[in-house]
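Quick one: structure for this chain?
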Amino acid sequence: RKPFAGRAGRQLMRWMQRAGFADEADVRARVYMTAMTTCFPGRRVAGGGDRRPSAREVDLCSPWLDAAESLLRPRLVIVIGSLALTRYLPGARLDDVVGDAFTVPGERVGQLAAAPRMVLPLPHPSGQSRWLNEPSRAALLDRALVRLRDLVPWAEAQDLPEAERAAGIIAGRI
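Got it. Here's what it folds into:
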């Protein structure tokens, strides 16, 4: 099963097009997508979608994510949702970080600056996420997509080796 293949994936692809990608094929060709866990956590017992992975499940799978990052060396990591956010910006809230880019140690990057490796947080596009129900948060998403659009040419600079041109999407659940 490919990552973000359902309704949340269609929403994510619309966001990526707003950020400058041509279409879903362009996103999938240029972006490596993975989840915080390598195994499907299962459906929620109460219904209504997928279960959020436990902290133990995330810890057990972190060596796989570490290995993928080590091999790919993405210059830009697009972090989807609060679960994935905890890996890169521990203690941060989506409200405080969506719309800005950060260095991997967690320092905010200026609007025109580019760091050797950056993290750009986005909310999760799932219908279960209520984060976007507030109008002020939609404005944060708009700002984040503009920021991503500014970073896409930087992420594919011609003087970089192919492996370093990639962006990576890390999501709590796919």
